[in-house]
Write a structure and sequence with these properties.
Blueprint: H1 2-45, H2 50-55, E1 58-63, E2 70-75, H3 81-94, E3 99-105, E4 113-117, H4 133-136
Parallel strand pairs: 2-3
Antiparallel strand pairs: 1-2, 3-4
């Protein structure tokens, strides 16, 4: 009699773990992703003044559920070349290496441009083949 009760309680416990366990794991992963997105958004928004974030630019942060990779998109509207390069430099120094940074905008009132910056290594240095900021957004001659 006691052995049968123990088997039933054990079976109930196994059923409960098998049915609620995956749901708990999913909720935990979603929570971790949401906290990471919030932290990245806070880090990116901290690089701009509050007035700029409210009026001139848009920010979007996306993190993957399982992988450590993330993407940050900043639309800077109609900013100058210098403002865009300054933002890229500040953000790349702030963001962790596995985060892809995409900056969009109308550089000097030209057609929209998009620049994606990915860290090549875990370091913070510039590679030898990097394009100089003054030449990257120049008009073709």
């Amino acid at each position: 009699m006691m052995g049968q009760a123990i088997r039933e309680v054990t079976g109930l416990a196994i059923t409960l773990v098998m049915s609620v366990g995956p749901l708990g794991l999913l909720v935990g992963l979603l929570n971790r992703r949401d906290r990471r997105e919030a932290a990245l958004l806070d880090a990116v928004a901290g690089q701009f003044s509050a007035v700029t974030v409210r009026s001139d630019i848009t920010l979007q942060v996306r993190c993957r559920l399982l992988a450590g990779r993330a993407a940050v998109r900043v639309n800077m509207g109609a900013c100058s070349r210098e403002e865009i390069w300054e933002a890229i430099t500040r953000l790349r120094r702030t963001l962790p290496a596995p985060v892809r940074l995409t900056v969009e905008g109308r550089v000097d009132h030209q057609p929209p441009a998009r620049l994606t910056v990915e860290a090549l290594t875990g370091g913070r240095g510039v590679s030898e083949g990097a394009v100089a900021p003054s030449r990257a957004f120049s008009r073709a001659a």
